[in-house]
Amino acid sequence: MAREFDYVVIGGGSAGYAAASTAREKFERVAIIDDAAELGGLCILRGCMPSKTVIYSAEVLHLARNAKLFGLEIPEAKPNMPEILKRKREMVYEFQSYRKGQLESDKYTLFRDRASFVGEKTVKLAKSGEEITSRYFMIATGSVVNHPPIPGLRESDPWSSDDILELDHLPKSVTILGGGVIACEMAQYLQRMGSKVTMVQRSPLILKDHTEEASREIMKVFREEGIDLYTDTHCTEVSKNGDGYTVCFEHEGENKRVTSERLVNALGRKANVDSLNLDVAGVKLNHNRNIDANDFCQTSNPCIYAAGDVSGPFEIVHLAVMQGELAAKHATGVACTPIDYRHRTSVTFTDPQVASVGPLPHEPECQDLDFIESIYPFNDHGKSILMHADHGYVRIWAERPSGRLLGAECVGKDAGELIHSMAVAVTMGATAEQLLKVQWYHPTLSEIWTYPLEEILNQCE
Questions:
Q1: By CB atoms within 10 Å of each CB, which of 28, 34, 37, 395 scores lowest?
Q2: Is CATH 3.40.190.170 correct for 161-267?
Q3: Rounded Cα–Cα distance for residues 177 and 198 (Å)
Q4: Three-state SS string across the chain, please?
Q5: CATH 3.50.50.60: which residues of the chain?
Q6: Which fold has domain 342-460?
Q7: What is the pLDDT of residue 79?
Q8: How many CB atoms lie within 10 A of CB 252?
Q9: Are residues 400 and 459 in contact, defined by beta-carbon separation less than 8 angstroms?
């Protein structure tokens, strides 16, 4: 006999836990199925928290090595990789322990197993063979590393970001394939720690989800810091040999070869759906091979929902949590409204950081609007100048003639923190005139927003 539940979540990460917690407010019988070696999910174990922990160590090291800029004498600054790893593990353990305790509480029935659908409302557990039925399911199985069809890539067994986050030593040289968020954050981290880093990116620009201006600013900084960055390439072969790893690629009409001690595959991730047997459940995939879901995270099977990386459209943790909560509310009959992705906030933790809110000027949501924009550089702003944080800019685009903010972008020191004042403005529909009534304290990094706001207001009058 199959065990029966009201709500079953497959995957105990950020989206899955949010869904389970929300569903438990209405349903008594809520189960979570998770077969990972450790409970906690990608963000806690191998994503946001560990990566930002080590990246911050690299930032402190970078500042120490440039201490003379601040009138300081620091004779030597170097990384202690075993201690960095120890600190990262301690940080992760704190977050993981709390989440693990939540998942293992008596609020839920937890199955440490792998689930596959055997019907539209039934899954079978791989280890125990037990069958589970439920009124509703939530698929939140996340994503796995993608291996594009580059000859020799999979066979060479490259590192992923998971391996970088577990380093207790520094490789002398590293080649990173890719130019997305993970590739850029890990490249700068390794370069600042002391590895010689080469990046090979297929597209003409890195960080394709940001603007061209943001991409070029980060590319400039990377090259200044010593990263060998190749863009607009075609990778033809990867091989592993006695000297390490060799990457062959075409660049500006020439055939190039780069050999390094280690190779990192940062060419993206794909939805973790292979073992779910979705066809049997009537769950369809979209053109990106993610689970296709509507505005309420409901799949083609109305009893099954999907949230987080497995469905997209953005691989961002706070959106995964919002999706999980939304889906559970919809299933339990609680009044809810779809997520407005036009207000999405995005941050990349390079140095300088890159952050944005709202649709970017070149995206379809802005194309049919009459808007104006203004930009102001960090190298002309008092607080950033005294911090030697003169890379980057802030940028605002607003509707004409009202001056209502449509979006904003910040490339610079602590951009991930600075963007939130504009995130509030965009979400609340504030205008430039209203924001200029705020008392922006001097001298702060935040007051840099007043300069493009004033320009926007002038253009609206």
A1: 37
A2: no
A3: 9
A4: CCEEEEEEEECCCHHHHHHHHHHCCCCCCEEEECCCCCCCCHHHHHCHHHHHHHHHHHHHHHHHHCHHHHCCCCCCCCCCHHHHHHHHHHHHHHHHHHHHHHHCCCCCEEECCCEEEEECCEEEECCCCCEEEEEEEEECCCEEECCCCCCCCCCCCCECHHHHCCCCCCCCEEEEECCCHHHHHHHHHHHHHCCEEEEECCCCCCCCCCCHHHHHHHHHHHHHCCCEEECCEEEEEEEEECCEEEEEEEECCEEEEEEECEEEECCCEEECCCCCCHHHHCCCECCCCCECCCCCCECCCCCEEECHHHCCCCCCHHHHHHHHHHHHHHHHCCCCCCCCHHHCEEEECCCCEEEEECCCCCCHHHHCCCEEEEEEEHHHCHHHHHCCCCCCEEEEEEECCCCEEEEEEEEECCHHHHHHHHHHHHHHCCEHHHHCCCCCCCCCCHHHHHHHHHHHHHHHC
A5: 3-145+270-339, 161-267
A6: Enolase-like; domain 1 (3.30.390)
A7: 97
A8: 9
A9: yes
pLDDT digits (tens, 9 = 90+) for 403-412: 999 999 999 9
CA dihedral 446, 451, 452, 456 (to 10 degrees): 130
Identity of the residue numbered 225: E
- Cα–Cα distance, 150 to 184 (Å, whole number): 20
List residues bridging with 122 in a β-sheet: 119, 133
Mean pLDDT for the stretch of residues 34-58: 94
Q: Read off the pLDDT of residues 183-237 as tens digits, 9 standing for 90 and up.
A: 999 999 999 999 999 999 999 999 998 999 999 999 999 999 999 999 999 999 9
Amino acid at 271: A
Please check whether residue 375 is in contact with residue 392, taking contact to mean a CB–CB distance below 8 angstroms: no
Report the mean per-residue pLDDT for the chain: 96
CATH class of 3-145+270-339: alpha beta
Every domain range in the chain assigned CATH 3.30.390.30? 342-460
Contact 410, 381 (CB under 8 A): no
Q: Is the pTM of this model over 0.70?
A: yes
